[in-house]
User: What shape does this take?
Amino acid sequence: MVRNVKRTLPIAKEVNRAIIETYEFLQTLPDEKARQKHLNLVEKSVKEQYTPRLKKLSFSQGKLLIKLINRETDSSSYELVKAFLGPFKAGFYQAFAALFGASLKKEYHPDGEDALTERIVILVENGQL
Assistant: This one.
């Protein structure tokens, strides 16, 4: 479990930073056409940057990453894809995840089923693990 958290937590934190930066930049663009053009570039860049790293994750690490993204962003992966890329792509990616028994709608519950993970995350963040 510790290894999985150490491997996926940095990715979840990077995703959070990228979302914040993208959102802030989108606010500076003049119109919807410019925003859509930028989002297309971001999507392409994200795929190029993260696909090789994500392919190296195990199934359980991928499921953990979905939860840690929810922890870091306070939004499900599905909601993030829907907000930035639209409901069609969100539905497509959710269906693709479902084929493998995962869900982009999975939420992180630090006081419930994810309490052990939360303890490990805190220890990792504090440099104790």
Summary: The chain is about 75% helix and 0% strand. Helices lie at 2-26, 32-55, 59-73, 77-85, 87-99, 115-125. The CA atoms of residues 6 and 124 lie 7 Å apart.
